[in-house]
Amino acid sequence: MRETLFISFLLLLATACNYGSGPGSAGFPPEKQLDSSMRTVFVPVPDHPGEPGDNIVYAASFALAWDELARILGSDPAGTDPLVRRLNAADIHEGAHAKEAYEVKASVTDDELRASAVFAKALPFAVPFSRLERGMLFDRKTKVRAFGMARYDGPQAAQMQLLYYSNDDLFVLRLTAGPERDEILLAKGFCDGVRLSVMTGRVEAAVERGKKAQAKGADGWKYVIGAEDEVYIPEIRFHLSTEYRELINKQVMVRGQTLHIIEAAQRTAFVLDEKGIILESESVVGSDSSANAAPPKLLHFDKPFLIMIREQQAKHPYFIMKVANTECMVKAEKK
């Protein structure tokens, strides 16, 4: 008897957006199947390569479903495919979610084994950011809808922190959102290459350099949102599904038994915009005497950048996206 594996996961993630029972009630766009003509790809682990120039999206849920499959089988599915080996070796998803934040299911019926992971989360900003009426130009090519802080606003600035700043094309900005105060890292200037694991490593190294600089009291103005600083962030909105064709129809071995993977699918809905529910604002903007004479920082995410989202106290992010093009952005309305 040939046993078959089904692996699927659903991720619904809304930043500054509330939703009801499904994507249609969340303001998500209609679901769209990824195809070879598009410039967005999903990767099940951050070490799996994407393609140059593509948006690359990772969420921890697929690896969680794979782990659940291994649990009910009593062993990791072994195979020669590089993606199978990466899934078995991956540990970045471990501890990325609090257990109550996701649901993993697995079932065995006759000759079918099915595993799925579902994760949904809303991350409202405590204070809504401002919609930029003129939008912004991304990569000097396309005008897209955007939000942020064009003029200094104390409550908005209080939910932002610069973790690293070298110049206007190389910096890491942290936003705090959601009732659990998850952190959203937006990192510009770290996106060379096709592996998210390499990019996040660069970001984490830069954040460590920033911590050391702040501890020494050096260049304090770099880590303060000043009165002349600007923050521009493109609106991102997508609802995409895909199949991992690298896994489908592949054979894997478990304890001497041959299994066939016939389904490996992912659906992700994601919204990042300026909206939010007023909950609380506990952050305080730091001050530094050197900030008065500091040049204005133009924190414009107008070139490829990285999004990393993780829970408080978690070591690893549960969502990573390299934003390389405007395919998942909202085009600005023509005036």
TrEMBL record:
It comes from the Bacteria. Residues 253-325 form the Serpin domain. InterPro entries: Serpin_CS, Serpin_dom, Serpin_sf, Serpin_sf_1. Gene3D superfamilies: Antithrombin, subunit I, domain 2. This is Serpin domain-containing protein. It comes from Chitinophaga pollutisoli.
